[in-house]
Write a structure and sequence with these properties.
This protein has a domain of 203 residues: Rossmann fold, CATH 3.40.50. It is of the alpha/beta class. It is built from 15 helices and 13 strands. A 6-stranded mixed β-sheet has the order 4-5-13-10-11-12, sandwiched between helices. The chain binds pyridoxal-5'-phosphate and zinc ion.
Amino acid sequence: MAFVQSLKCRECHKTYPIEALHVCEYCFGPLEVAYDYEAIAKSISREKIEHGPATIWRYADLLPVEGTDYVSLGVGYTPLVKAENLGKELGLSDLWLKNDTVNPTGSFKDRVVSVALSKARELGLKVAACASTGNLANSVAAHAAWAGMESYVFIPANLEQAKIICTSIFGGNVIAIDGNYDDVNRLCAELASEEPTWAFVNVNVRAYYSEGSKTLAYEVAEQLGWQAPDHVVVPVGSGSQLTKIHKGFNELYKVGLLEEEPHVRISGAQAAGCSPVATAFQSGHDYIKPVKPDTIAKSLAIGNPADGFYALDVVRKTGGGFGSVTDQEVVEAMGLLARTEGIFAETAGGVTIATLARLVNEGVVRPEEKVVAYITGNGLKTVEALADTEGPTYVIQPTLEAFKKVYESQRSHQ
Ligand SMILES: *Cc1c(COP(=O)(O)O)cnc(C)c1O
Ligand SMILES: [Zn+2]
């Protein structure tokens, strides 16, 4: 049994029934899932979680789905790795990486989609749909295929080739739009009101979808031995993930899974070519001015972020920072992460690591803090970003002589 009480407006706190609703009809604020934490505290325990499945569903008591008939490809419980080499490089003594590149479709979006489509099925919605910057489309198409649901995914036409191919392979409908993500999103908001039986995972079932990101906090705390880190660095597109990581750590304390109240400092990472939230943070404004995205970090290219205001608020009140980094820094950071830790992340991961490096230099992230950087997507999906910088070290004839020649010249240069 789920412990969901209602949907609740984040602004005026008016409550709504558990349906496919996402905006408050009084103040147009976003709706969020509200839980009975006292009842959860009585049901949940570290032991129960540790005996649960090695997926996000080990935290089912804190997720908004009834029963156990989940739409899941085996999502979550990804590795949290101690990054000794990268830590040394950046001057951090206790750096960890949450490696979501190894989720079933290669990004953290599998977490939110597993929750959204499980709920959609429970609500009797028949068609899976989304407005996507790429990874969401990929995950929706895969989960819909597994669940036998029809799917319509909407993407900007200029996405990376791998993201388009890795989505269309699952046999759903992939609709490429001549426009940017914000155009795609606007179209989907219109469609969602015309097609009440469709589950637009990040539109009409967004309240449930976004809950999936809380598992990024739960897993980190459990993997650190039921302890919250001091500081986390999170890439920001819509800002949903960042706000839910914050909610997740606080919930663990509320239901008794953490002994001490967590004070996790939360920092946000954006690409300079699309940094509306970082810009508001740096200029001290509350208003997030929409921008037209122009960056290789396409999974973060949201010019008018739905949860930008809330992400900004979380970063400010937890004492974190915000960074925005150039595309060149992104590419360099992707290489640095790969060379030091053996993790091939997509451009969003480059944004996170490059921002972490900046925040260390600015003294926002402190050398001795226990820091977790969220690596949210797989590099195989954005190889275009590296086409100019990566390739074979040498190209030679298939002879011993040819190899010896390059080998010796390489040795003599060391
Ligand atoms: C979507 C996405 C993000 C951003 O998540 P939001 O909740 O939109 O802020 C970060 N990284 C990757 C790889 C993504 O696909
Ligand atoms: Zn309201």
